[in-house]
Amino acid sequence: MVREFHKVIGEETRRQAMEKWGGKPDVLVACVGGGSNAMGLFEDFVKDKDVRLIGVEAAGFGLDSGKHAATLTKGEVGVLHGAMSYLLQDDDGQIIEPHSISAG
User: Fold this and answer.
1) Eight-state DSSP code of residue 33
2) Are 10 and 40 spatial neighbours (Cβ–Cβ below 8 Å)?
3) pTM of the full predicted structure?
4) Calpha distance 38→73 (Å, rounded)
5) Which region holds residue 33: left if phi is over 0, alpha if psi is between -120 and 50, else beta?
């Protein structure tokens, strides 16, 4: 559902790239912290083998600082609200909130 609502990002990116450059972008980069902007941007390009899709996550003050949001790089598989995901956790499996400067 989120992808469907956010896919306008990718559709608009494709339209503007074709209009301005006459072709698709070579590379697309999006933050994968929450996933919605990445899903939206990538959706229109996922079948294009000639467009490289790169997802990045926030490293904050560094991966070894404890102040980051790099759940894919430093997280471990866990369950939150009934869904399996990569989570930042302490030794007892309790959730550690990621460091973020985002408004959300």
Assistant:
1) S
2) yes
3) 0.77
4) 17
5) alpha
Residues 27, 33: Cα–Cα separation, whole Å? 19
The residue whose two tokens read 């302490």 is 90
The Cα 1–Cα 45 span in angstroms is: 18
Cα 43-74-34 angle, rounded to 5 deg: 35
Q: Which two tokens stand for residue 20?
A: 């301005």
Contacts of residue 44, Cβ cutoff 8 Å, sequence gap at least 6: 7, 10, 11, 13, 14
Q: Which residues lie across from 84 on neighbouring strands?
A: 79
* Mean pLDDT by groups of 10 residues along the chain of 104 residues: 90 97 96 83 96 92 91 92 93 90 68
The DSSP bridge pattern shows strands 27-31 and 52-56 to be parallel
First and final C-alpha spacing in the chain: 20
Please give the Cα distance from 90 to 88 (Å, whole number).
7
Largest alpha-carbon pair distance within the chain?
A: 54
